[in-house]
Design goal:
The protein is mostly helical. Helices cover 83% and strands 0% of the residues. Helix 3 packs antiparallel against helix 4.
């Protein structure tokens, strides 16, 4: 997507969302931010179809806004509970209930979102959107494991990849960069535990890998 097309798409999206933002009390600045975030993701898809680019950008931007709405409302209710004067036990019960309700809403939203993307994009493009929403952590991490552990079996590679895919599904719904990375951290812990049971000394493997990477960088500088 060219800079000119990108700017035109963002302006069009701002116009389309104007009425919606007024109805939902969403600030025009936040609409602009989410549209720009979505447009950057769509630009990397190279769809070569301005109309489709606009539609997909709108779908992604709306997902950002819908997630934020659920999470902000949840957090506001949790803040009320924490300042309610209730006992810690009662607070925790109410907070867990609020989190559970929000998780259910986010789960439904997630399924609907992927379905909407499916009306416009192929599976590989949807995967690219998911990676765009999660900073490309999955392909980077998967490549890192393979580079660090060069004798991984196909079964081990499959286990690593499947867990990273599951982590990405959760991370897509994260409300912040910290939360998104937190999901990958959780699943990397699961992967590392599995690899330990497979006989890998990950501390040693990690040290050796960093030494190899450093050596590569030195070689690049020599050329």
């Amino acid at each position: 997507m060219s800079i000119k097309k990108l700017s035109t798409s963002i302006l069009l999206l701002l116009f389309i969302c104007c009425k919606i933002s007024a109805q939902q009390n969403i600030s025009p600045e936040y609409i602009k931010v989410t549209n720009e975030r979505a447009a950057k993701i769509v630009a990397k898809l190279e769809l070569s179809n301005t109309a489709k680019e606009t539609v997909v950008t709108a779908i992604i931007a709306q997902q950002f806004r819908d997630l934020t709405k659920i999470q902000d409302e949840r957090d506001a209710e949790i803040a009320k509970v924490k300042s309610s004067g209730l006992s810690k036990e009662k607070q925790n019960k109410k907070i867990e209930k609020l989190k559970g309700k929000a998780d259910q809403l986010i789960g439904k939203l997630h399924k609907a979102y992927v379905k909407k993307l499916g009306t416009q994009l192929s599976d590989d493009k949807i995967t690219a959107v998911k990676d765009g929403m999660t900073y490309g952590v999955l392909p980077i991490t998967y490549a890192g494991y393979q580079d660090m552990l060069r004798n991984l079996t196909e079964e081990q590679k499959s286990y690593i990849y499947k867990n990273l895919v599951e982590a990405r599904e959760h991370a897509m719904d994260g409300g912040s960069s910290k939360e998104k990375h937190g999901w990958f951290g959780k699943y990397k812990g699961r992967i590392n535990n599995y690899l330990s049971t497979q006989g890998y000394d990950l501390n040693k493997e990690s040290t050796d890998w960093h030494d190899r990477v450093a050596a590569r960088e030195k070689d690049k500088l020599k050329k």
